[in-house]
Design goal:
By secondary structure, the chain is an alpha+beta fold. It has one domain: YojJ-like (1. The chain has 4 helices and 12 strands. Strands 3, 4, 5, 6, 7, 8, 9, 10, 11 and 12 form a 10-stranded mixed sheet that branches. A two-stranded antiparallel ribbon has the order 1-2. The longest helix has 18 residues, at 5-22. It is globular, with a radius of gyration of 17 Å. The mean pLDDT is 89.
């Protein structure tokens, strides 16, 4: 499996598991299980677990320990040769916002504890916010990018600090009017793509949840000649094709 396939595994997990958990709290296109306390950009009251997966080869865990990015030795690696194994592994985790290392060379994963978001070999002139679009935190771009949390900062930084490393998230931070978090994929160039739910009951596209009128949007990003990150495409994801990715 290529590292990039992790993105679609996480998208499928978000659709099959997290949306199912959140569905009882979605009314008229808004996820609100806290009686009107829903706030975009924050994760308070989020009814599902967040995920950060850092993917590389077999040596990344040791390098992160050496550079004091991981403060404790990671758990034993567990084989996840297929999507179902990966889902079962995530379902067994009890942390609210888990962090994991994926060894793509050997198709295995491990859980890590506390993480330091300032890698030792990190460039001092690094511009974190240049790696994400203006509307990353809020759909209208009104909330400051400084609201991103530690896990997102790590997802942005680690691919730049370590060769052949990519990072993936299922974010708990609420986004848009619906209020579900996004699935993100970061490379050394920043945000490469993201998946998000949107309430579009009149859509002619494929619904992730037809009863709730929820579709899935895939956004991809590139850089222009000046190096500025921009949204290159947006499309509704065919829910029936998720298993094919």
């Amino acid at each position: 499996m290529e590292k990039g396939d992790l993105f679609w595994w996480l998208v499928d997990y978000h659709c099959q598991v997290n949306l199912k958990e959140a569905s009882p709290y979605i009314k008229a296109g808004v996820l609100d299980n806290k009686g009107g306390l829903y706030k975009e950009g924050r994760d308070a009251g989020c009814p599902y677990q967040g995920v950060l997966v850092v993917a590389n080869g077999s040596t990344l865990a040791d390098r992160l320990v050496e550079d004091h990015v991981i403060h404790d030795e990671p758990d034993e690696f567990v084989a996840v040769p297929a999507r179902d194994h990966f889902f079962n592994y995530l379902n067994r985790q009890s942390t609210e916002d888990g962090a994991y290392i994926f060894d793509g060379s050997n198709q295995r994963i491990t859980t890590v504890g506390e993480l330091n978001n300032n890698p030792r070999n990190f460039p001092r002139d690094f511009l974190t916010y240049s790696r994400i679009p203006r509307d990353f935190v809020s759909a209208g771009g009104q909330l400051p990018l400084s609201m991103i949390g530690t896990k997102t900062r790590l997802a942005i930084k680690l691919p730049c600090a370590y060769d052949n490393t990519e990072a993936f998230q299922i974010k708990r931070s609420r986004y848009g009017t619906l209020g579900m978090g996004k699935v993100t994929h970061f490379t050394k160039d920043g945000l490469e793509r993201e998946f998000l739910f949107d309430y579009k009951p009149d859509s002619s596209g494929s619904f992730i949840d037809p009863k709730q009128g929820i579709v899935g949007l895939l956004r991809t990003y590139q850089r222009d000649g000046a190096g500025t990150l921009y949204r290159a495409s947006e499309e509704i994801v065919d829910s029936k094709a998720l298993k094919d990715y």
